[in-house]
Amino acid sequence: MDMMNRRSFTLAALAGAGMTAACGNGVGSNGAAEIDARVDNTLKYLYSNHPNARNLEAKANGILVMPLITEAGFGVGGGYGRGALRVNDVTVDYYSATKGSFGFQIGASQHAHVLFFMTEGALAEFRRSNGWAAGADLKYAAIDEGQTLEIDTTTSLAPVIAVVFGQAGLHVGATLEGTKYTRIIP
After folding, report:
1. Position 154 pLDDT exceeds 70
2. Are 96 and 82 in contact (CB under 8 A)?
3. Which segments constitute the Ysc84 actin-binding domain (predicted)?
4. What are phi and psi of 34, to 5 degrees?
5. How many CB atoms within 10 Å of residue 99?
6. CA–CA distance, 43 with 59 (Å, rounded to integer)
7. Residues 171, 72: contact at Cβ < 8 Å?
8. Three-state SS for 131?
9. DSSP code at position 30
């Protein structure tokens, strides 16, 4: 009888843990409102400091705004952040960005970035993927020393353009390659 009680207790505990794990998905929380407020502030900062970004927004089919990505590494590194996908200035989905790296590295940094989906096909591929990874098809719009956003002819023809800005910290390089974007429920 004692063994049966332990077994029942263990099974009940495992079942309860599985059921409560679903409670962490944020349904009914204000996570979406927090992300939207951060996205609004990030876009306000981007457009006030780099007005040329408005030209990208006007031509884009959708934009993914990641207000804060935190990266750290000491040999092995990683990064994480959450943001929102907007189409016609309306949030349609929320995403997380995760990144892992291995190699000679040390430090920590934070930055924001915005992905401009310049073609309907690029946006559709991003939205239907189970986990979209930034790769070689991603082009960067450079911010020069005078803090001006520069877009050259090659970049302007790319299906996805990334703008990385607001870097802080001591971690060399702010690249998005290897970053995986996954739809979330905040």
Report:
1. no
2. yes
3. 99-182
4. -65, -45
5. 20
6. 16
7. yes
8. coil
9. S
Residues 78, 75: Cα–Cα separation, whole Å: 10
> Rounded to an integer, what distance in angstroms lies between the CA atom of residue 140 and that of residue 156?
10
Cα four-point dihedral sign 34, 111, 127, 131: negative
Spatial separation of the C-alpha atoms in residues 39 and 62, rounded to whole Å:
14
- Encoded tokens for 68: 């804060």
Residue 14 C-alpha from the chain's centroid: 33
Handedness of CA 37, 42, 45, 51 (dihedral sign): negative
Question: Does 142 map to a domain?
Answer: yes
pTM recorded for the entire structure: 0.75
> Which structural domain range is residue 142 located in?
29-184
Q: How many domains does the chain have?
A: 1
Angle at 82 between CA 118 and CA 175, to 5 degrees: 60
pLDDT attached to residue 100: 84
